[in-house]
Amino acid sequence: MSTSSFFYNLRSAYQAELDDLRTDSEGKDVLRKRLAEKRKELGFLVKMLEAAPEMVAVVLHQAFRFTAPKAMDHLIAQDSEDLPEWDSLRDGIEIAPWAQEIVQTILKEPMGEWFMTLAAALEYMHSRPLTAAERAQAQDEDEDGLEDRDEVREHRHDDEHTEDHDEEALDAQAREDAGNDWLEQQGFDRKE
């Protein structure tokens, strides 16, 4: 079983979204409360189905029970352009009664079926531990990030005597590059 880079990156974004919702500024677990609030905002969130599916998919957190794991394993190995239709997956997914109305609202949207396929995949991946290959991929990405930071530090060290605004420009450029890389991984065109 393998996970495509498309789903691997989407999984990371989905997990980050859940983590952001999980605790308040005092460290208290407020996930249920925040998910309930998000579900009330569904009318607004459906406008973001295509642009930020991981931000909308949280409304379906814990809404699925998977009865055909092999079909889901096949799904998460696909790239974004090779996704199966929602109807082909639907028989292997039980939807919680509380989520039925949410699903019907989403399916009325032009990208609703595509989104439901992604949301199911995200919940499926969230419900299972990372595979060895996924852990290795995460470690490689962490190491790449460290190498990039080391290169920026090295560049700064070489130019120790430059003015403060040069260093700020480097920081700003590094942040912008990281943001552009992330957007490109999510399927957007680079902004350059």
Protein architecture, described:
The chain is mostly helical and 192 residues long. It folds into two domains: 5-126, no CATH class; 133-185. The chain has ten helices and two strands. The protein has a two-stranded antiparallel ribbon. α1 (5-22) crosses α8 (112-126) and α7 (100-107) packs across α8 (112-126). The longest helix has 27 residues, at 132-158. The protein starts with a helix and ends in a 7-residue tail after the last helix.
Structural topology:
Blueprint: H1 5-22, H2 31-40, H3 42-45, H4 53-57, E1 64-66, H5 69-76, H6 86-90, E2 93-95, H7 100-107, H8 112-126, H9 132-158, H10 164-185
Helix pairs in contact: 1-8, 7-8
**SS element count, helices:** 10
In order across it, which strands form the biggest sheet? 1-2
Mean pLDDT: 83
How many DSSP E strands? 2
Tell me the fraction of residues in β-strands, as a range: under 5%
Supply Rg: 20 Å
Distance between the termini: 36 Å
Report helical residue fraction: 55-70%
Instruction: Work out the count of structural domains.
Output: 2
Q: Given the helix and strand composition, which structural class is it? A: mainly alpha
Which regions contain 5 or more consecutive residues with pLDDT less than 50? none
